[in-house]
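Session log. Operator J.P. requested a structure for one protein chain; no other inputs attached. Running the standard single-chain path with token output.
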Amino acid sequence: MNCPTCGKRTYRLIIWSLALFFVSAYYAIRIVSPLLKNPPHSKNNEFAQRSVPLTDAGRHVKDTHADWDNTDCNLVSESRIRLHMTKPKVLEAWGSPARVIITHDAVDFKKETWILPGDRKVTFNLIGAVESFEEPTPILFR
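Structure written below.
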């Protein structure tokens, strides 16, 4: 097959392009597949599990929820939460919400806000992770 403008044979270009594509795909899969099998944040990653030592109270939470990481177990045992924490962990740390408000923004992303006893407020994003939270500020007397 000849190129209509220059008259050169085009099959060589097609063959080289395909060969380059397959070689690139082979090396991309070879590099990425080990990361997919054992991602650095996976539950089987022993370093992530042991990087923060468990407190005594955190150990009690870990006994009940073995799949939670050590940091979250320690925080839940102290009735504290953090950003990106999931709903079950917030339920365990702060209890059930008194009121739930579901809102949709301009792009129709759903946000869920929990109003909890004690003037606490937690907002969850679309995937159910903590996006923001408010705790009452303690009043200090002089």
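Operator note: The chain has a mean pLDDT of 82.
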